[in-house]
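Lab meeting, action items carried over

1. Structure of the two-component assembly. Owner: GW. Status: complete.
Input record:
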Amino acid sequence: MSTARPSLRNSLLLRLPLVAATLVVLTALLMAAGLGLLTQRYLIEDVDSGAFQAMSSWNKSLPTLIQQDNVWAVYEALTSVTKADVGQQHGAALAVVLGANGQVFASSDPRAFPTARLPNWTPLWTAGTLRLSAPESPVGSVHPGLSPPIQSGRWRLYVSALRSGTGPGVGTLVYAVSDALYQSRLLSMLWWIAAITALAVAVFVPVVWMLSRRMLRPLGELRRSMDLDGSRARRVGTELSVRSDEVGALAGAFTRLLEQVDVARQAEKLAAVGTLAAATAHEINNPLGGMINALRTATRFGTFDETTGRTLDLLDRGLEQLRTIAQALLAQTRPAERDLSQQDFRDLAELMTPCQRERRVGLQTRIDIPNSIPVAAGPVRQATLNILLNACRAAHPGGTLILQADTAAAGLLRIAVCNAGEAPPAAMMSSIGTPSMPLGGVGFGLWESRRLLSDIGGRLVLTHADGWTTALIEIPLRA
Amino acid sequence: MDRRALIAMLGLAGASRALAQVNRAIGVKAFRFGVTDVFLHDGAIHLWQDFLQSRLGMPVQIIQKSSYQESLEALRSDEMEAAWICGFPYVVAKGFVRLCAQPGWHGQPWYQSYLITSAGRTQAHSLADLKGDVFAFDDPLSNSGYLVPVVALRGMGQTPQSFFRGTFYTYSLHKVVEAVGSGLADSGTVDGYIWEILHQKRSPSALKTRIVAKSKRYGFPPIVTRKNLEPTLHAHLQHALLDAQSFVEGRRLLEVLDLQTFLLPQEGWFSGIQELSEILDGTHAPIPVGAIYETA
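Predicted assembly:
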């Protein structure tokens, strides 16, 4: 397992809170931008609304004043609005009234638009700078006769023909409002929006960071448990697996994985023990053979008193049992060394002789197989021997064991071991189905047989019916 | 009891208290005193009212008119008992008004008409230099704000229409200053008393103007009463004004108006305006510009 220090590159525990915090910041910025644009739109709408109201008011009052040739009153009417609009901002609004002769009748800024002179519009627009724009609100529609605003550089222009009643036009009114009029307010409001956004970010980013870290804490514990030893890791996993969320499911899966790893380690240990046992058996088997040959030669050709004869016979049986065990160990450690043959079944029958004698049990063999069968001889021999020994010990004294083997089913070697006797203990029956080694030694032979068979793709089924216990082995033939 | 007979019985001396008691007893209407936008100063209306009520011993209503024409109409139609008007309206309305008191500016019954232009226009030094301007007048019945420059133009063989590019009326002397200061008018004509006070108070508009020429001295705008006003009331008002310095309310009013005293008016002080009026009417031969304007 990796013990690298968590970093943005390799840790979701950092990346997810960071992503959440970044999303908060982006959302806040997006909302601030939207609010800013909306504010600008409303301010322009406000400017339009105010301008249209002023124009409507002027349209009613100015024609009469123009007809009275009352320059000062027109000037006062214009400046009463422009100075109120302008407030502290000099030059942010401008109104010009042209007489019927096209000359300036009066303006709110007489120095820019001198009275009784043709107007020079340069301060407001030059060729190509005019851009007709729709009003920001339908306010213009309630003031019929007023033109839509005209954008010219930083000026927003409103133009109206001045008429006295239904008579001919007496002049033209041009009202210009500088963008500066609303931009200072916009700037002020943007500062507020920025301040509130900064405050929201300052508050919510730590909250989101803390909450997401808190939600991910169990995942972090699970991650750290991976660096612990098996038992402590399993304890953490067990504690977390009670959760009902995804972390609980992950912890459960992690715990099961740890258990499987333990089983695998146990199997490895057994394999190592087997290897050691095989080496030991190999070293024992050769001298043991010599000792048996020597003993039997002496027995056949020598003359011994009765006591010595019984002793030699006892030695012969003991040595034979030792060789049986040694050969069984050798067979177990060479699972793929050779195909199974009829001789292996004869060997098994031979190996069973001591137990038969001890238990006074007979053995019937029905071997209907070719001379060589493409299955690993070692595991099959060991598994069958284990089962035979179990059956021998379980059989009633004076009873009979049955060993059958055939390849009647296509691609399958089937071996059956039957004995008459009591039903096997429940622990033994269950030992076949569990991947874990049975505790207390009960059913260990069957468990080991099942494990050996499963290694070569075979299976073991144990049944008991009508006073007969049957162990059925099925092994697929090698291709 | 007849009100006029009762007042005559009481006499003038120490009559204030008695007059007030009588007025209250008979439910007399308020004394109506007219002013125009020309001479208004901050708080002046309130001070006029305080002063006149304290001295006349009767309710006083200050009526503000927007032009001299309106003031004269109000006097002639008995809508006002007295008014502060200009010398030219007095000359015009001699038939139904009479002099009551003469404000004394610097203690003198005189003032001048100023030709003014923007402060940056330093090359203009006479009426002739203002040819082609947009020119701001005060009131068609104003001596300093209309009569003086128009008569001067007549001496040059010109009329406002021929001499100027455009003209307009503001119906307020301080608005003439504002019109010239803002550039709405290139030049204008204004009461020297008003311009000096505005300049003295550092008025932004006044500071944007300069004097092109000053006229000769003319009679200061007088306070008049309608001729059909009860003589005792006329005398009572005149006495109150002439004695204004003796009372707190009077001193406060004079201080705000930047005046030193009220004088007993003399008909001869308005002879100059009378002459200008006759020239305007065509009953007097024009006089040279030099006889009207001094240099600035």
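2. GW to write a short summary for the group page. Key points so far: The interface with chain A takes residues 134, 136, 165-166, 168-171, 175, 179, 182-186 of chain B (CB under 8 Å). The first helix of chain B runs from residue 3 to 10.
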